[in-house]
Amino acid sequence: MRIGVITFPGSLDDRDAQRAVRVSGATPVALWHGDHDLQGVDAVILPGGFSYGDYLRAGAIASHAPIMAEVIDAANRGVPVLGICNGFQMLAEARLVPGAHTRNAHQQFIRRDQKMRVENATTAWTNAFTAGDEIIIPMKNADGRFVADAETVARIEGEGQVTFRYLDVNPNGSLNDIAGVSNERGNVVALMPHPEHAIEPGFGPDTEDAMSSGTDGLRFFESAIATLVSL
User: Fold this and answer.
1) Residue 33 known to be catalytic
2) Is 134 a catalytic residue?
């Protein structure tokens, strides 16, 4: 399985995402924002960072990058697409997932190991989980506050498009503690925390078992592989 990771000007976690793909058992393919070619990959990841310096709005300029036309087409064809942090912002700006993002409610950049609950375990990127699982994933953002109008929130809550919800603390003021969402089809998933930083013992978040032992993020990438195998 070949999973593409797109690099934009200002991407910070593209190499980490490539490593997560490799550790999970798939082949990472480096893709460039200025190209119109997904190189025939089976799935796509939009990584975290500060694309174009977050000018205008976080993810807004990147959502119009040349390769995004190909991403939008692929997503509409059912190709699995994952947006992480800045990638979430891009997918929201491109209208591939619902909602938008504003500055964190406390107006500060935040970095923490965040507990979340899995709300939907049927998507292309969450099927290795069980609904109700509580996981710990690192997060780091300044514009991570998920917002949407009341009608949109009611719709995505009712249709199961909320994929993850913050537990214990809402780190950025997101509505309904929403940490991640999907499109209606479930092939496009986006979340603010960084699963690529929780894939190997010794390098992940602290857990009750041991320091730096968390590997909950690996199941995101294993889910995508399972989805592709089943097609």
Assistant:
1) no
2) no
Domain ranges in the chain?
2-230
The catalytic position among 70, 93, 119, 194 is 194
pLDDT at 209 over 90: no
Which entry of 70, 93, 196, 222 is annotated as an active-site residue? 196
105-125 tens-digit pLDDT: 999 999 999 999 999 999 999
pTM (two decimals): 0.97
Determine which one of 85, 93, 197, 222 is catalytic. 85
Please determine, for residue 131, whether its predicted confidence score (pLDDT) is greater than 90: yes
Q: Is the pLDDT of residue 150 over 90?
A: yes
The CATH-assigned architecture of domain 2-230 is 3-Layer(aba) Sandwich (3.40)
What pLDDT was estimated at residue 206?
Answer: 87
**What would the 3-class secondary structure string for the chain be?**
CEEEEEECCCECCHHHHHHHHHHHCCEEEEEECCCCCCCCCCEEEECCECHHHHCCCCCCCHHHCHHHHHHHHHHHCCCCEEEECHHHHHHHHCCCCCCEEECCCCCCCEEEEEEEEECCCCCCCCCCCCCCCEEEEEEEECCCEEECCHHHHHHHHHCCCEEEEECCCCCCCCHHHEEEEECCCCCEEEECCCHHHCCCCCCCCCCCCCCCCCCCCHHHHHHHHHHHHHC
